[in-house]
Amino acid sequence: MMETQEVLKIFAKHRGDAIVVPGRGGRHWVQMSDKPNLDLPVGDPAMGGHASFALGVALAQPDRKVVVFDSEGDLLMGLGSLATIAEQQPENLYHFLLDNGCYATTGGQPVPNAQNVAYDVMAGAAGYTRTHRIDNLESFGIEVGRILAGPGPVFVWLKIMPELENRPIKERLKWQTRARDQILADLRRELGIHE
Fold it and tell me: Which residues, in sequence order, are CB contacts of 13 under 8 Å at separation 6+?
């Protein structure tokens, strides 16, 4: 298994000018991103909404890669997103799933059937053109460049170690430094979109 922060450090070397929806990796990503105006660390658009949100961005910006770091808890809350993404076939969407086997932000409750669900198989059955399953940093370091060089939609299931957050929400480290309106305004400006 891998640590989320280490996965994101490796990904950062291959990011290019992709728009990144860091999802569950947000608290680490905002610290290391060198292109924050291309990041959409919007927290929870809705439980289970990261993949659908990224799909909307990918469809609106078809000439730019869009990378989302989803979690298995979020994905299970919005499984319909797999079929919708597969139907739309956005060649610029790269869907990375951070699977830690638990609901880490709410105290570490186990995800139902966590040891038996094959998320890559689910994505493939939904119609994703490419799927991958990676459980170690060495393989991720080798594969991530190839994955991003090919067309989407691609689904990459990453087995990561749980990082439990048991402090009350008001006591947690505030990693989001910009309001949602500012995040979107910064992205529009970066992309040359005028309101």
Answer: none
Which pair of structure tokens corresponds to residue 14?
A: 């291959």
Tokens of 150: 């090919």
pLDDT for 141: 96
Question: Which tokens sit at 3?
Answer: 């640590």
Residue that has been written with the tokens 């992309």 in this structure: 191
Chain-centroid distance, C-alpha 184: 17
The CATH number covering residue 128 comes to: 3.40.50.970
What residue numbers bound the domain in which 53 lies? 4-191
3-state helix, strand, coil in the chain (%, to 5): 45, 15, 40
Are the beta carbons of 163 and 104 closer than 8 angstroms? Answer: yes
**Side chain identity at 2, as an amino acid letter?**
M
pLDDT tens for each residue of 73-104? 889 888 999 999 999 999 999 999 998 876 66
Which residue has tokens 């040891």?
A: 115
Which pLDDT does position 48 carry in this prediction? 72
Q: With 60 as the cut, is the pLDDT of residue 44 above it?
A: no
